[in-house]
Amino acid sequence: MKKLVTLIALLGFTSWSFAEESADLGLDYGDFTSMTLQVKAWDALGEGQYEDAVKYTEKCTQLYEKKAREMQASLSSKPSSDVVNDYWALNDVGTCYFIRGEALTKLRQYKEALAAYKVVKDELYYSQCWDPKGWYWSPSDAAYPKVEMLEARINGDF
Amino acid sequence: MYRVTIGFIIASLLSACAVNRPGDHDAAPGSVVQVVKQSDGTFTLLRNGEPYQVKGAGTGGGPSLGGGSLQLLAESGGNSIRTWGVEQLEHLVDGKPLIDRAHDLGLSVTAGFWVQHTRHGFDYSDPASIGSQRASLREAVRKYRDHPALLAWGLGNEMEAFGPGEPDVRIWQELNHLAGIVKQLDPHHPVVTVVAEVNEPKITAIRAHYPNLDILGVNAYGSASSVGTRLVKMGWHDPYLLTEFGVAGTWEGASTPWGAPIEPDPTTKALETYTVYKIDRDDNLGRSLGSYVFFWGHKQEATATWFGMFLPTGEKLPRVDAMAYAWSGKWPDNRAPKLLSLETPVAFQRVKTQSSSYAQVDCLDREGDALRYVWDIRAESSDRKIGGDAEAAPQSFGAAIEAGQGTARIEFKVPNRVGAYRVFVTVYDGHGGATAHNLPFFAED
Questions:
Q1: What was the ipTM of the complex prediction?
Q2: How many Cβ pairs within 8 Å bridge chains A and B?
Q3: Alpha-carbon torsion, ordered B360, B365, B371, B377, to 10 deg
């Protein structure tokens, strides 16, 4: 009996792992760098592939959140533009939490979106994101009105 | 009585350091409005000696206002309106000129004076044109300076240049001259000048060339909630009004591949409007003197419902309720219907001309009112303008609706002409409330 339970558990774990791997196989994570994952998440968001956008951000946070938090903890103010790229993990993971908030909002998963926005607003608030127009912006600052809006949506009668 | 006396003494003391300057008009004014700098560096707007936070809406008069909505503004907790041109003050509302009707309802008025735009062909190097504009301003100030509803002079709206070039300094110099005229003729009302968003060159130019300005007015949409913090970063520590805000603009959000801006759903628009108001009010105490939501009326801009808070027939849309909640802390007794979903397989798609499809809407009415559904299929707007200039409504293809008009689901045929379209639904509660939404699609052979 014990062997049977072990076998079922093993089969269950194997199939779960395979399913997870299959889900991953559906997406191209490129070179798995935080920058690549962030760019792919933005692209998916822009193309309306919201589930994919969430997966890219999850891969990024899975791989780099620990490093991002170390960088955040080492700072006492927003890095200036000459050193901002030294904080690559913080920037990419913070941005990915913002993108996740955007994508989950589109998917009407409002509580989950709120949680994502709150991470970048309250915990990774020194992250910055490069705008191709030529400047850095703050995902934390951008998340602030989103948090207010989602809290009103969830708790208010809109 | 004691409170009144203390209030008067405080107001008198505060008025000693008022920003407004003395002028040549000594007749008893209908109202006295001052911007007062406090000892801690913050600012207070005083209207007849009482602190006054603007809870306003941009509106006009005439057909675009929407029936009865000025009264609804007052009932919703609003206390002020803003216009763009002085001629709007005479537009009839409920049988009276707008400024008089506003006063009847206890609403103050920031009276707009339309300062001409170079993009409309005005030449700020032409003395005759400049002289004519100055004469018009003098006439307007003399006419309305003693009206008790007058709160401030709105000198210009987005008159700075659009596009890559920064505005010519002559516009700021001329505004400074115009503000001087106002101050000379009417020392009892501050001058507001309204710009389109803010950036450092603009703020620097205003600082350098426009010292007569009392209150900076800022029109902002997608980034409106951060205007206050961005102004501080740009070195603007003086008072401001958020003179237009609401939903992200047609130029700021997502578009279809064929360039049709995607209108947010009405609930999101209500939330966005409410959130901007709340953040601006709560995070900028003593610098933001209040705000004017845009637009308390009906306006065609990209779509018929993007910015307008009313239907042309006068029904309020959900953003009106959101502002009532923001201003008063209470929801109105009768809420506009809530749109839960609008679906059609053609949404955001390229589809064959003459192909069959459907659309369906799910709506909730909190009071249980019977809902009436009106559907339309319209061409994408081909009369797009910038800066809020008037646009023509696009052509309707209502005949494409084959079944279900008046119900929550229609069957329709994609129009025979190649091009961009939208399917619109408007849902009425029969008690003055409505909601509306649309989804774009593209018909191709």
A1: 0.84
A2: 34
A3: -40
